[in-house]
């Protein structure tokens, strides 16, 4: 006779090992609305524009879409547009009282379209400007290396994703940029997807076993991320939460 108690126990065990990885692109950039913005960019950092009022609204709508989701950790690119987006999202979440932002350079914009080194604020400046940032967080990317094209950031993204999955359990939200998010789709979903402003992607992450088909059929060796986890993409650049679907910049390379 089947033991119902054991079934329930096993179901709980499975549910605890499965988690969600949410990925969101920043809101609308001011330099895409004002082409002359770069001439007066603070610090001369033409690669670090803020988001527009529309971008703030887009981010708030992301927060409302995610407000009932259990999110345990938020990782964010150090560029202003991502931090503003993250701050607006957290303001709408029901669990926002305990959430801090982990600023992770591994999720920076691809370096072929930024200044080099990137023009984002220093760690000290970021902490003084954004109270949600956790100053104790130790980021995984330790140095900036040149990237010749948007596809090169895939290696950086792969290492960063694997590092945070190894160290942090629970549900994760990542706020990043167009090309890095396309790289996330390539790394996790094996399919390139360039997502527009405040588009939401979701990957269900489940650990693999040594005998699983995913592990046996993996062609990149035992250290490949797919030998450790199975990723199911349940949302890929979803915009259904946005009130305005115009000019989301889903196809350009910046």
From TrEMBL:
Residues holding substrate: 81
Pfam families: His_Phos_1
SMART domains: PGAM (SM00855)
Matching InterPro entries: His_Pase_superF_clade-1, His_PPase_superfam, Phosphatase_SH3-domain
Gene3D superfamilies referenced in this protein's UniProt entry, alphabetically: Phosphoglycerate mutase-like (3.40.50.1240)
GO molecular function, one term: phosphatase activity
Stored SUPFAM superfamilies: Phosphoglycerate mutase-like
Annotated PANTHER family: UBIQUITIN-ASSOCIATED AND SH3 DOMAIN-CONTAINING BA-RELATED (PTHR16469)
UniProt protein name: Phosphoglycerate mutase
Protein's organism: Panagrolaimus davidi
Species classification: Eukaryota, Metazoa, Ecdysozoa, Nematoda, Chromadorea
């Amino acid at each position: 006779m089947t033991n119902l108690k054991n079934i329930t126990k096993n179901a709980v065990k499975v549910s605890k090992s499965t988690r969600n990885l949410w990925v969101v692109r920043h809101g609308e950039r001011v330099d895409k609305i004002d082409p002359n913005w770069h001439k007066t960019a603070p610090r001369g950092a033409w690669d670090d524009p803020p988001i527009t009022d529309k971008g703030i609204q887009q981010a708030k709508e992301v927060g409302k879409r995610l407000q009932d989701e259990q999110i345990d950790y938020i990782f964010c690119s150090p560029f202003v547009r991502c931090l503003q987006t993250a701050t607006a999202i957290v303001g709408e979440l029901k669990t926002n009282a305990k959430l801090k932002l982990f600023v992770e350079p591994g999720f920076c914009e691809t370096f072929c379209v930024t200044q080099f080194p990137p023009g984002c604020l220093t760690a000290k400046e970021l902490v003084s400007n954004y109270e949600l940032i956790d100053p104790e967080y130790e980021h995984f990317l330790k140095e900036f290396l040149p990237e010749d094209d948007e596809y090169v950031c895939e290696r950086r993204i792969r290492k960063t994703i694997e590092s945070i999955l190894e160290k942090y359990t629970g549900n994760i939200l990542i706020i990043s940029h167009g090309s890095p998010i396309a790289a996330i789709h390539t790394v996790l979903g094996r399919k390139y997807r360039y997502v527009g402003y405040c588009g939401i992607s979701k990957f269900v992450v489940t650990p693999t076993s040594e005998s699983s088909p995913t592990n046996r059929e993996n062609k990149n060796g035992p250290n490949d991320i797919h030998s450790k986890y199975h990723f199911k993409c349940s949302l890929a650049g979803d915009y259904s939460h946005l009130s305005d679907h115009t000019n989301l910049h889903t196809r350009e390379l910046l």
